[in-house]
Design brief:
This protein has 2 domains: 4-67, Helicase, Ruva Protein, domain 3, CATH 1.10.8; 92-285, Vaccinia Virus protein VP39 (Rossmann fold, 3-Layer(aba) Sandwich). It is 42% helix and 20% strand. It has helices spanning 4-17, 23-35, 39-44, 52-65, 71-75, 99-111, 129-137, 150-163, 206-209, 213-216, 224-236, 252-262, and strands at 77-80, 83-86, 118-123, 141-147, 169-173, 186-191, 237-246, 265-272, 278-285. The strands form 2 sheets. A 7-stranded mixed sheet has the order 5-4-3-6-7-9-8, with helices on both faces. The protein is elongated.
Length: 289
């Protein structure tokens, strides 16, 4: 007889032996997925007998995880900002660090709430977590979400439909903003571009390499796509508009210098993430040029 708690401890043991980071959290996530329960239920009801199907499902997931396939791809979803998003190998797996972008965007949007309907541009939307979360948190906004990957856009559209915001998000298949003219119409430009240096690819964990290359690597030094967005940002934002862009921990000096070189922005700030590392560029387009 195998109990739920026994399954949990066995999962932790197998994941730990394979040097999986944070095996306790992963064991909880996979059991919640299979049992469709809350975290607390695993421990409160831990003495309940697990069915043969449940035992087999746990074993199948762990066996795949031991090959270093990301857990989010195995179970097909990842939590972000308290909501569950579908993910596939076509999209980057949502990370907690990106929640900082949502927090800062919400501050900017609340300051704009007396304005006409607010227009958001989400460049490189991936699974749609930024566009969808902002649409859910702020009912007065509309969003244009852009991605160069058709497969990623399909995932994002499915998430928007499931979470009930399809009517306020437009989708565009484009290489960043190349198909957008000099419109200067957006109040907020949000982006989580690829910013990992290609030269470090061989040193990365197998789970990270399993994610889409185009969503990870920003050229030899990790700066290529960041530079493109900075270059385009002044023409895409209205005066007073806000740029929010996730960056690598070692790119603070580069992005602040690049933003000042445009001479189009003031209030250039880089915020630290929850680990204390530089993570989010926040800049405001000048009211008058």
């Amino acid at each position: 007889m195998t109990t739920i708690l026994t399954l949990y401890h066995d999962a932790v043991k197998r994941l730990s032996a394979a040097e999986i980071m944070d095996p306790e959290t992963e064991a909880v996530i996979l059991l919640r997925h299979i049992l469709n329960c809350r975290r607390a239920d695993i421990f409160l009801n831990g003495q309940q007998t697990a069915s043969a199907d449940v035992v087999a499902s746990v074993d199948q997931i762990i066996t795949r995880r031991l090959t270093k396939e990301p857990l989010a791809y195995i179970i097909g979803n990842q939590e972000f900002y308290g909501r569950k998003f579908v993910v596939t190998p076509a999209v980057l797996i949502p990370r907690q660090e990106t929640e900082l972008l949502i927090d800062k965007a919400s501050l900017a949007l609340r300051a704009m709430e007396d304005n006409k309907k607010i227009q958001i541009l989400d460049l490189g939307t991936g699974s749609g977590i930024i566009a969808i979360t902002l649409a859910l948190e702020h009912r007065q906004i509309s969003v244009l979400a852009v991605d160069r990957s058709i497969d990623a856009l399909s995932v994002a559209k499915a998430n928007a439909l499931f979470l009930g915001v399809s009517d306020r998000i437009l989708w565009l298949n484009s290489d960043w903003a190349t198909t957008l003219g000099d419109c200067a119409q957006f109040d907020v430009l949000a982006a989580n571009p690829p910013y990992v240096a290609k030269c470090v690819q061989s040193t990365l964990q197998p789970e990270l390499i399993a994610e889409p290359e185009m969503a990870l690597f920003g050229g030899d030094d990790g700066r290529d796509e960041i530079s493109r967005i900075i270059s385009d940002s002044s023409r895409l934002l209205r005066p007073g508009g806000v740029l929010l862009m996730e960056i690598g921990y070692d790119q603070e000096t580069f992005v602040t210098s690049a933003m000042r070189d445009t001479e189009a922005f003031d209030e250039v700030i880089v915020y630290r993430d929850y680990a204390g590392l530089p993570r989010l560029l926040n800049a405001r387009r000048k009211e008058k040029q």
